[in-house]
Design a protein that fits this description.
By secondary structure, the protein is α+β, with helices and mostly antiparallel strands. The protein is built from 13 helices and 22 strands. It starts with 10 loop residues before the first strand and ends in an 11-residue tail after the last helix. Bound molecules: adenosine-5'-triphosphate. Residues 38-87 form the FHA domain.
Amino acid sequence: MTQIVERLAAKLELPGLRLSVVSGADLGKEAVAESGVLRVGAARDNDLVLSDPSVSRRHFQVTLRQHEVRVDDLGSTNGTFVQGVRILSAILAPGSLVQVGNTAIRAIPIEQPVHIALSEKTRFGALLGTSVEMRRVFALLERVSPSDATVLIQGETGTGKELVAEAIHAASPRADQPFVTFDCGSVAPSLVESELFGHVRGAFSGAVRDRLGVFEAAHGGTLFLDEIGELPLDLQPKLLRALESRQVQRVGENRWRSVDVRVVAATHRELAAEVNRGRFREDLYFRLAVVPVHLPPLRARGEDVPMLIAHFWQRLGRGAQPPPEFVARLASRAWPGNVRELRNAVERAALLGAVESLGAPKPIYPSSAPASSPFDPAILDLPLTEAQEKMEELFTRAYLERALTKSGGSVSGAARSIGTNRRYVQRLMKRYAIKASDVDDE
Ligand SMILES: Nc1ncnc2c1ncn2[C@@H]1O[C@H](COP(=O)(O)OP(=O)(O)OP(=O)(O)O)[C@@H](O)[C@H]1O
């Protein structure tokens, strides 16, 4: 049988766009979207730099997409208005007027098209995607991975930020050196410095022996700083210094130690907006965002959903293709937890034989594996570590969902009732894509 392999296009041509200031202090200033993204604000790194004092440093961004032009406010102080309406995100019609502070800007379609590089592949490392949005990301990753450039990955929870970091490392000359992850939101603020840079014995109570920090542990390889937006403000200058000098000082020691690390950082926040709000230092933001990578949410790339469902299905050894009605039912849903939530839904439905129940009305925290229900014997066919992980996930999920239902959705209440703290419950909820309910929490 002859297989016809369709070659994917290596670039995308989009209609061009010009932003022109039509009133205000910068009247006549213009910018053309050359890369597909245009940033507007008072800071010098914007494509359109405005001198209007009521404009934030990074005010809004315009992105050219396949069938639309999108505008996103970047957490500005005075807001972004499209045709007189204050927006967080909006689709721009040709000729729309965007107002920021005392400045009005018109978005004008132009003849000269914009060419966006696309990967000809539908995967990068463990990340899959056939959509133009993902192939746009893959093309960028293919280009930057072999270098030592610092990469900042931004995207909602479950969009694959950690997979991107791993894939960058694997595609770099550092691949056979360590890949070390540090989650900046996972430890108490007072311990972050010693986790990053290490400490010497006696540096603080509890420091019973010398300890390496993650910078030194990643020497020669890649350091992945996850949830960088959670890094306490007072530590940000220290991280900046380490990134600039490639030297670190262990807590309690005067000596500087040289480190050779490539840094990849990630956050679910829009870091430019955090800068506007004064929660993140601008100089550190610049140092990290040498190559910014935005991972689109799953709702912006619906065409990836069937391929992802098939992939997760096949990983469970359930045959080559999932039943079409199963795909159709899942494809029609919204996925606020993105790919992670989709993966969990496929695995849960397949392993617990719950395909039929998908789409049925659910209690706030539906129990996926009540203690009395036998698990699917298919778990026994998985490799040992995967089977153990899967059982742990099913157990933890069912356990937490029960505790949350009993507490009426209160995370603190659930944490108290099971003898742990709220932070830990929140981390597990995030890991297993268990959604917080609307019930108020402290
Ligand atoms: N493009 C993708 N292709 C295949 N699997 C994916 C993709 N994106 C995410 N996943 C799946 O979703 C899971 C979650 O991805 P990951 O942990 O990288 O997300 P994240 O953006 O770092 O989330 P968080 O912000 O919550 O930490 C992965 O383990 C993987 O199973």
